[in-house]
User: Fold this.
Amino acid sequence: MLILKSKTAGLSLAGQSVLNNSSLINGMDRPIFRVRFPQFAQIGTITLAIVMQDATAQNLNSSTEVDTPVVEEIVIVDTRLNITTYGVGDSLSIGSTELERIQPVDAEQLFQRLPGFTVSRPGGAGGVSEIFLRGAESNFTAVYVDGVRVNNSANTRGGSFDFSMLDLFGIGQLDVATGAMSAIYGADAMAGVIRIRSAWEEPGSSSAIAEAGTAHDWRTGISTSFQAGDNAQWNLRASATDGGDDVTGSTLRSKHSGSRLAGAWNDKGSWEINARHVVRERTGYPEVSGGPLLAVYRELERAKGDEVSISAAADWAFSDQWISDVYFSSSRINDDVFTPAVAPGVLDAQPAFAAITEYRRDQFVWVNRLGLGLGLNLVAGLDSINEEGRDSGFVDFGVILPNAYTLDRSIGAAFAELGRDWGHGLVSTLAVRLDDDGDDRRASGKLAIEKQVSDLGSRAWMRMANGFKLPSFFALGNPLFGNPDLVEERVRNMEAGFTYIPRNDAEFVVSVYDSRFVDLVDFDFETFSNINRGQFDVNGVELKIVFPLTSELRVQVDGNVADISSSAGPLRRRPEKTAGFTLDWSPDNRWALNVSARYLGSRLITSIPTGDINEPGSTLMGATASYTPKTTQRYWLAIDNVWNANFQDAPGFPTTGRRLRVGTKFQF
Assistant:
């Protein structure tokens, strides 16, 4: 069952944290701070002075009670404040228990089941996926894995994340917050944020997992954990995946490994370090080629890539009213893609090209959490981001033209968020953030208000925000059609809703949202370059219902009806109507059944052989039955695409057909 959690959905500070260890910091090959804006040193001094003055001068009430800090116990997604008190509106959280019941085959299938999401992946496992949140562009959603922002600003997708780089066996918690989030996360979080926390074994335990399917697909993984002294533990994980051969020409093979070292120092704070490495290779027909059914040229697109990342976190309680956190994350993403030429059809031909990219991102964040008394809580801090992207590819117009560029960007930011508990069930939050890249300053804000209207937790709420996305390195630097004069894309977002809780474990949520995206980056054929032009609007109504029919049987229903309009031409691959149904049945603690169905309305898709065509609506259904004879053993049988629905994410690409999967997990 996918659980909607308006007040508890979130990610721990481990997801975005930094180890406060001077020996580690001083031992880096390059300095962590490369901030080019001395004005932020002054802001930092002022922030610290305010925090220290308030912490010593105020006799703060119990609204920010602090026990021994444990990184995993502090939960955040759409706010850095205490989300139990200040989380406004609706959010989505999926934990390890729900993931075990669903057993999705990959990240794309998981997001297909979630309210508000649309997934497009022509060509099965080897295709390039795009995940749209409430109709926004796929690169408008910021994605974090263990605190590392994994969007790739150097790729040809303008900064979207390649979800084939995710290890499904390694996900312990997934949280989603919708709407403009730049006031909390800075650039790129225009449609929302996806935060993923890895799964780790308890100290002294290990597990092994394996799955195989009728499409010759398989997955396997191992995980273990050790006690490292009295106050620390060490976790290790490794897995491998083969996506099978269900769609002609489509292949995907990947290997994942991860490690975590976490602990606490006395009763004042805790720390955590995460490391992650992914290697992936794939093949498939080019997306606009017409796929295995229509492509004239039969050469396949080939891609290989890897990602290395590290994140570290530390928090320290100076008093019951003041906690200071520092976070560090660093990632390196390499991608080598060769796309063959596509023959002309209704549309012009596409030349062969290669994108050989490298993207580096380092981030350091300092956060102070402070109780101010009288129901007030403050979060304030600084953020430093350094990025570098390069491409050494080419385009083949009959003559090989290089695509090479190298760009870097440094951003400094100061942010603050104030929460007020007014009493009688009324709370409000106000967040502001100022980003400076040395040339321009950009202000982002977010205001949220919520009023509880019943003792069970029913509430009315409203939130509004603005945000921005910086041009990707690909859009800025490509020597053939890049444009160094591009400005940021911007959004303003509003949402209001009502959450009705008739009794425990039941929830009805209806929300109305409106988003306007402007200064979109688009390719202009007249100037043969990227330009800022046009806007598109997304407004809609979303309904979510979670209701237990009995103590053993729960159902979830959701629906989304949106109006998506664009002044710069039609938007493709995203339907305006979606709906979902999930049934979760657990007759006892050994057996469980999960059944899920997702309807996608009609949508516009395109290819060079066909031009634009309208793909009619379709329904995709899956089911997973699991048996747990012991707490250390688990077996499952999953059926994907139960009714063998045949639809296309792009013309000429058949969808993955009906597939059976069997799997097992042992703990020892």
